[in-house]
Amino acid sequence: MSIDRRRDGGFTLIELLVVIGIIGVLMALLLPAVQSAREASRRSSCLNSVRQLCLASMQFEVSMRRWPGAFDRLTAQHIESSGGELFGTWAIQLMPHLERQEVYDEYAAGRTPGTYVDLMLCPSDDIKQRADAANSYVANAGKHGSTLVQSTADGPFVNRAYQPKLAMLEGHWLDGREYTLSYSENLGALPYHTLGWSGFKTGDAGVPGTWIDGDYVADRDDRQWSPVFVWHSVPQRTAYINGPDATCQNCEPEILTPLLYGSGSDAEFLRVNSFNARPTSNHSGGVNVGFSGGRAVFLRENIDYDVFRALMTPNDRKSSSPVPNITIEDQPFL
User: Fold this and answer.
1) What residue spans of the chain are helical by DSSP H?
2) At residue 89, does pLDDT exceed 90?
3) Distances (CA, A) of 295 to 39, 90, 142
4) Residues 318, 319, 320, 325: is their CA dihedral positive or negative?
5) Are strands 228-231 and 137-143 parallel, antiparallel or unpaired?
6) Is the pTM of this model over 0.90?
7) How far apart are CA 14 and CA 210, in angstroms?
8) Cα(208)–Cα(198) distance, rounded to whole angstroms?
9) pLDDT per residue over 277-291, tens digit each?
10) 168 close to 159: Cβ distance less than 8 angstroms
């Protein structure tokens, strides 16, 4: 008499392994799709932040009748020092137009609160902590080099700390606002209150963004590097979108805010940071950028550098560009 040892509704070991294998394959197929969807959401949120910066700049222009400066004097300041001046980055200048008037007031009072503003950090920027004055965005400061030769034809965000009478005005957008870049991302951007400019000769370099004594100079070596991006006449590899970072071979780790006309590792620090002042992101294939007319788009990283340079110059024909006669088409750079 034979005994049937099979149980109704049970699984054999082979059947169980097959089911586990199928589930594993499905998970392997599903995980990249989930990650892609998450990155698409983060990129969309980042793009919206760039657009908000563009709109805030346009509101600033309406109230001040000029475009924000890369660096500028802060108004309504309460500094208890003889002849003192307080400078702020474009980000601090825009705070009232981003509904963060209280943040601006803190800086205008001579303090550096380092307030975290969620809009200033791209969700895909996983290098920085969500705290303090973390920042992912940079403004178009035009041509790399000294403020002695800066021009609104080369870029809309001029250094008004050195040249307070120079400003981007309505009649300067000869190439059109919708064809002039204002903002981009940069993974190496310093906190939004830090004036990355080597043109301050003295001041409280230990507290970023609080140079209260207005002692500054300009020379061929007074580079800007944060929170701005610049274009180069002869770009290095590091000047390209998402290009490799330039490295400071001889710099000490503690060098954060080098003084003007530094020597040795300080001077190399300045050169390296100025080359890294270009658009970078964790988005695959490009970066989010904003145009001066309010449009925000995803710019591909393999754009021709001459075209990219033309997009950075508000008046290309009058700019310092070595190729000043480019007519921008609507689609090739997207």
Assistant:
1) 13-64, 90-94, 101-108, 265-275, 305-312
2) yes
3) 21, 19, 19
4) negative
5) parallel
6) no
7) 70
8) 12
9) 999 999 999 999 999
10) no
